[in-house]
Amino acid sequence: MRQNLHFQNARSSSSGLGISNGYSGMVGRADTTSMIEAKYPAVRFKQQLTAYVEKIYGTMRDSLKREISAILTLCIQAPRAGRVRASRGSLKSIHSSALSRQASSVHWQNIVKCLNHTLETMNNNYVPPMIIRKTFSQVFAFMNVQLFNSLLLRRECCSFSNGEFLKAGLQELEQWCSRTTEEYAGTSWDELQHIRQAVGFLVLHQKSHKTLEEITDELCPVLSISQIYRIGTMFWDDKYGAQGLSQEVSNWKHENNDDR
């Protein structure tokens, strides 16, 4: 402000000499005052525009979350007909399992349809790619929390066959991110790290042969030991009858009581 006032005084002194500003035909003082007054409406307009964009962005994001949330409840657990043991390999059970997988994949495809519809709507309305990326990244983070918490809270979701069901659904989302490209999907796929690693653990064969270091460093690096232990102890193999965590890993958790 001091600099602006100094500039104004300098122009005032030049007006006393009858020197025009060479632009509007007016002397310097009036033109400078106009410039100072115009500065503040521009700032207010910028603030109002920013608030308006943030409100629209939040509305679009929350609307997509609500749509997907209703479908996610159908994607968390595989249909009961699909959870059959391999030993029951009759033609009837195989046919029933195939039908249930086909029906359950529809729910994941409905999520993809919601994502595509939102992307098309935003593109048709010339929404900047930066806002599109941010929208999808936050929605994928929301899905990650919902799915991962379901594994931690519901033992029936921690079976081998349910892990296969979730893995197939996550592949649908991975393919969507690949088709959409990073320009619009951004870091969406990375936002699913927790559920991806948890599902990878559920469908892993010979879990009982894995050491704690192999699990924490290679298989589930983003999960805490407590989260791994909880999923591992709730795991049940409804397909092959295999064990979950090794006794060594279970004993280590009890001895150290590690809550990381």
UniProtKB/TrEMBL annotation:
Q: What InterPro entries does the annotation carry?
A: Dilute_dom, Vascular_dev_regulator
Signal sequence span is: none
Q: Using the record's annotation, list all stretches that form the Dilute domain.
A: 33-258
Question: What name does this protein carry?
Answer: Dilute domain-containing protein
Database matches in PROSITE patterns: DILUTE
Q: Which domain of life is it from?
A: Eukaryota
One matching Pfam family is: DIL
Ranked from the top, the taxonomy reads: Eukaryota, Viridiplantae, Streptophyta, Embryophyta, Tracheophyta
Q: PANTHER family annotated for this entry? A: DILUTE DOMAIN-CONTAINING PROTEIN, DILUTE DOMAIN-CONTAINING PROTEIN YPR089W
